[in-house]
């Protein structure tokens, strides 16, 4: 018997260290997220379609962020529908697209970074 046999995960939220909650919340709102909650001045969540990302005030490691970008090591992968339409909307926003929309064997994808250098991969699978 597995210890999780009778337990259901109801949500899964990555936590990102960010240098400014306000800036990060505004950035993710550009991408269609909404404020979920805010706890004092150091913790918040943003939500979209029942999913959330938690934001904690802190200092991301600059070298790690640079290495992840250089190697295209994604921090968060967001599976979406209508990726062409999403890409056409996103490319006109003040965001840093590091991988334009491209076709891969598994589907279409594009990557961008948030203000603290986290890599977000958007994918529409075949």
Characterization of the model:
The protein is an alpha/beta fold and 126 residues long. It has helices spanning 21-30, 62-70, 83-90, and strands spanning 15-18, 34-39, 43-48, 51-57, 76-79, 96-104, 107-113, 119-125.
**Main sheet: strand order:** 1-4-3-2
The proportion of strand residues reads 35-45%
CATH architectural designation: Roll
Overall residue-averaged pLDDT value: 95
How many helices? The count is: 3
What multimeric state do the chains show? single chain
Notable features of this structure?
4-stranded mixed sheet; 126 residues; alpha/beta; 40% strand; globular; 3 helices; 2,3-Dihydroxybiphenyl 1,2-Dioxygenase, domain 1; 21% helix
Secondary structure elements and their pairing?
Blueprint: E1 15-18, H1 21-30, E2 34-39, E3 43-48, E4 51-57, H2 62-70, E5 76-79, H3 83-90, E6 96-104, E7 107-113, E8 119-125
Parallel strand pairs: 1-4, 5-8
Antiparallel strand pairs: 2-3, 3-4, 6-7, 7-8
Give a short synopsis of this structure:
By secondary structure, the protein is of the alpha/beta class. It is built from three helices and eight strands, in the order E-H-E-E-E-H-E-H-E-E-E.
């Amino acid at each position: 018997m597995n210890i999780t046999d009778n337990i259901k995960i109801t949500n899964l939220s990555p936590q990102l260290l960010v240098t400014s909650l306000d800036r990060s919340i505004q950035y993710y709102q550009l991408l269609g997220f909404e404020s979920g909650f805010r706890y004092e001045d150091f913790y918040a969540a943003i939500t979209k379609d029942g999913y959330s990302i938690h934001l904690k005030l802190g200092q991301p490691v600059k070298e790690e962020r640079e290495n992840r970008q250089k190697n295209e090591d994604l921090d968060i992968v967001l599976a979406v529908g209508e990726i062409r339409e999403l890409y056409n909307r996103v490319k006109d926003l003040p965001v840093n697209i590091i991988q334009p929309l491209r076709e891969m064997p598994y589907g279409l994808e594009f990557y961008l970074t948030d203000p603290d250098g986290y890599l977000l991969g958007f994918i529409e699978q075949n």
